[in-house]
Amino acid sequence: MEVLRLAEKEAQLWQSAQIELYNENHGSVDLVNRIRVRDVSLESNYSGYRCFVDGSWKGSDKFFGTGWFCTSSNGEPPTMGAANIRRSLSPLHAEVEALLWAMKCMIGADNQEVAFFTDCSDLVKMVSSPTEWPAFSVYLEEFQSDKEEFLSFSLSLISRRANVKTDNLARKVRTEPLHITYVNNIPQEWLF
């Protein structure tokens, strides 16, 4: 019974974090619609840019992989990036670094209205409740600083199924034997 109560409490805290994050960026929200994990790959109406991010980490690999895939509402061709970085402490560290790198790439491209999407629920929790993640404080300070560069910013949780392209980029670059970074010059055989 205690485990069940703990699970219910964690679910309520996660739900509250999602609502707080959404309210910060979009105003009020319908609670019923916000509980579900969204499958945004099927949505076609949006403005600005959508940037899907993912990190790929494996304890036995030398590197972890980061990937992002960005689409625009005005019909521009998609942009994407993949990089491997010396393996970090955990899969969550890889996810945070993937988001930070994607944010920097969007800032560098002068994309000021960006909705970011991740399949990592802990990443969404972390940015919505930064004080509860003291081990990531340096990352979260960098996140806050970068976030201020955007006119419109959001981070939403999506299903893994909606993040397949980015997951593919992050996994493939993770297994490369040397440090490598791709931005819009992804090897043809990696493309979906």
TrEMBL record:
Pfam families: RVT_3 (PF13456). Residues 53-172 form the RNase H type-1 domain. CDD domains: RNase_H_like. One of its GO terms (molecular function) is nucleic acid binding. InterPro entries: RNase_H-like_dom_plant (IPR044730), RNaseH_domain (IPR002156). PANTHER family: POLYNUCLEOTIDYL TRANSFERASE, RIBONUCLEASE H-LIKE SUPERFAMILY PROTEIN, POLYNUCLEOTIDYL TRANSFERASE, RIBONUCLEASE H-LIKE SUPERFAMILY PROTEIN-RELATED. This is Ribonuclease H-like superfamily. It comes from Arabidopsis suecica (Swedish thale-cress).
